[in-house]
Write a structure and sequence with these properties.
mainly alpha, 8 helices
Length: 212
């Protein structure tokens, strides 16, 4: 049941999935060219943020345009809880694809560095935090009110990262000083806990919403 709902979301974005796949592949080497001091961390993070929020926003847009489709899903043997959880699984699958694409990037462009579990875990945490606020707001306030949050995140991310990685600001992430296992496990646990709490809140909002 959950797989079918996730598959439905991927079918909705199938026209743009290829474009985002190419974009997620090109963003890291482009950022390496523009900001060599950022290595591949900034490019990978931006690729994940862009891919997840762009595709998620497109699904939300389509569901807003055709509200009867969501009503029909709820009328079928699809619990509202599963409909909400499918959105979270949808994001996790996009994240997994971005990890695979960046791994290929590091092979083709060695200057991006090595893609290790520490980077994957830290980026996972960094992405789940804004998503954990976005989804409850989406189910509570609706697409029209939350689309501005999407615009702010997409537009602010490059500016924020550019500021953080400027040489004069001297912001660096010394991941080598932290044990790999401890950093990865802690980041994933915190990310999953925050994501789970967000999912429970989103389920509560969606179950109390009126789809009539």
């Amino acid at each position: 049941m959950l797989f079918s709902l996730v598959r439905k979301d991927f079918l909705i974005v199938r026209k743009y999935a290829g474009i985002m796949l190419i974009a997620s592949f090109l963003i890291p080497p482009f950022m390496l060219w523009r900001m060599p001091e950022a290595t591949g961390a900034m490019g990978f993070t931006l690729a994940v943020i862009f891919s997840i929020f762009m595709l998620t926003q497109y699904v939300s847009l389509k569901e807003c345009r055709y509200p009867k489709a969501t009503t029909l899903l709820c009328a079928l043997p699809y619990p509202r809880k599963m409909i909400v959880l499918s959105k979270y699984c949808f994001c996790l699958m996009i994240y997994a694809v971005c990890c695979l694409v960046f791994g290929i990037d590091t092979i083709i462009f060695p200057k991006l560095g090595v893609f290790d579990i520490r980077m994957a875990a830290v980026v996972f945490l960094a992405v789940t935090i804004p998503l954990s606020f976005y989804f409850p707001a989406l189910y509570k306030l609706g697409y029209e009110r939350t689309k501005f949050v999407f615009v702010i995140i997409i537009m602010a991310s490059p500016v924020l990262f550019a500021f953080l990685f400027k040489p004069e600001n001297a912001v660096r992430f010394h991941l080598d000083r932290i044990p790999t296992t401890a950093l990865a496990v802690l980041s994933v646990i915190i990310g999953l806990v925050v994501f789970s709490m967000s999912a429970m809140l989103s389920v509560r909002f969606f179950e109390n919403s009126d789809l009539a």
